[in-house]
Amino acid sequence: MFNKRVKVKDLLASEPTGQEVTVMGWVRTFRNNQFIALNDGSTNNNLQIVVELGMLDENTLKRITTGASLKVTGKAVPSLGKGQKMDINATSLEILGDSDAEKFPLQPKKHSLEFLREIAHLRFRTNTFGSVFRVRHALAFAVHKFFNEKGFVYMHTPIVTASDAEGAGEMFRVTTLPFDNPPRNEDGTINFKEDFFGRSTNLTVSGQLEGELAATAFSEIYTFGPTFRAENSNTARHLAEFWMIEPEMAFCDIEDNQNLAEEFIKYLIRHVMEHNREDLEFLSQRLAEEEKQLPQDKRSEMGLIEKLEFVINNDFERITYTEAIDILLQSPAYKKKKFQYEVKWGIDMQSEHERYLVEKHFKKPVIVTGYPKEIKAFYMRQNDDGKTVAAMDILAPGIGEIVGGSQREERLDKLTERMKEMHIPAEELWWYLDTRRYGTVPHAGFGLGFERMVLFVTGMTNIRDVIAFPRTPKNAEF
Ligand code: 4AD
Ligand code: MG
């Protein structure tokens, strides 16, 4: 019954020559008991269905309400009205599912993004979220396309893990032990030997360590999976559950790593520019309208599409951490005490500092390398100066950090020494250290935060609006 259905997007791309078609979708609006705007999620453009007066009985007409689902068969003809190229002159119309107009929360008017977050199960049915999630899909597809074309192997790294890749300790515990009366050791601590995996386990914060194992066999791999962080950051850039893409390359140094990351980001943008033009134009318009309410100095200097074009057509700026700190110290913002957080060599740059660099100073994406070792993970390759590591962060306008990565410490002695200093238990990571024992190679990799990339490309401003069902502190609805 359903296989003869045509997608609205395909239909609108074809010529209306009186052909008979069957379409299915949800009613966006119904005017004058005659014109139905039908949407099936393939595009934001609705299909206009024309119901001839007298064709349907009174009762059926009443059931054509916003949100109801329909199956319509009719003839595709050039539209007489303005605003669309074709109409479907219905010959039969079936209501697949009613939608009580009194109760349906989505009215054909503008709703705030905050309100739509509360009805995230229905927000896909709006133009904004239609565009956002089609773009998100296209970006995910392009990720695989990019790495496949380069001969990288896609690794599925574990989601439940006993190691803490970033050493930051902000992990969600996975356990089947009873909370009220967990088994205890003699000293009163919880006995995880009794737990499901016979040890303490968590949700992964990153697939990198396992990715490195695979890279030292396949040369080039990538992961693309969910990661979890129990940091209590209630910001527009943080999720407790987010998706990350982590390529890992053997025979690769920090410069190759930067080149790949830049090429990758540009490739993703180009793919969406080529395949999702209509959605980008809609989102660009949406952003422009939203920004009209902001004071002049808070508005973006470029429109969304203009910004994306600019990014793909220009080199990213590349600076060292030390240069970044110098720029901040010389900045008018610093001199006028506009920064809330302290600026000096050694700080972990705050979002206000990163945004100053990309939005005010360089006005383009910036790759910062050579961070102080104290603020970075144990696995980063130590530079000869004894103070910095071969780390790289990519900062994007409007987003801040979008990529974090590094060349890895491939020298066993240097690595174990650093682990000792940072109290990372070497016994637990015996398998990781084995890669440095057996055929170690210079290697590097990075992690791109997928939702931050979707934010950048869609021009949305809150990360909760680019993932279907956001998980944030005190929120796991749906
Ligand atoms: O900089 P991070 O913590 O790096 C890693 O996890 C490394 N293991 C990556 C690697 O070298 N293979 O995270 C990488 C990126 C960040 O730059 C940011 O874009 C994103 O992941 N990210 C988050 N996105 C949303 N919500 C959060 N809480 C995020 N934390 C990091
Ligand atoms: Mg980082």
Automatic annotation (TrEMBL):
Domain Aminoacyl-transfer RNA synthetases class-II family profile intervals: 133-470
Presence of the UniProt keyword Cytoplasm in the record: yes
EC id: 6.1.1.22
Keywords, in A-Z order: Aminoacyl-tRNA synthetase, ATP-binding, Cytoplasm, Ligase, Nucleotide-binding, Protein biosynthesis
Catalytic activity: tRNA(Asn) + L-asparagine + ATP = L-asparaginyl-tRNA(Asn) + AMP + diphosphate + H(+)
Signal peptide: none
Subcellular localization(s) per the UniProt record: Cytoplasm
GO MF assignments: asparagine-tRNA ligase activity
Pfam family, one: tRNA_anti-codon
Superkingdom of this protein's organism: Bacteria
PROSITE patterns: AA_TRNA_LIGASE_II
PANTHER family: ASPARAGINE--TRNA LIGASE, MITOCHONDRIAL-RELATED, ASPARTYL/LYSYL-TRNA SYNTHETASE
NCBIfam families: asnS, PRK03932.1
Quaternary structure and partners: Homodimer.
Protein family according to the UniProt entry: Belongs to the class-II aminoacyl-tRNA synthetase family.
The protein's name in its UniProt record: Asparagine--tRNA ligase
Biological source species: Niastella soli
Gene that this sequence comes from: asnS
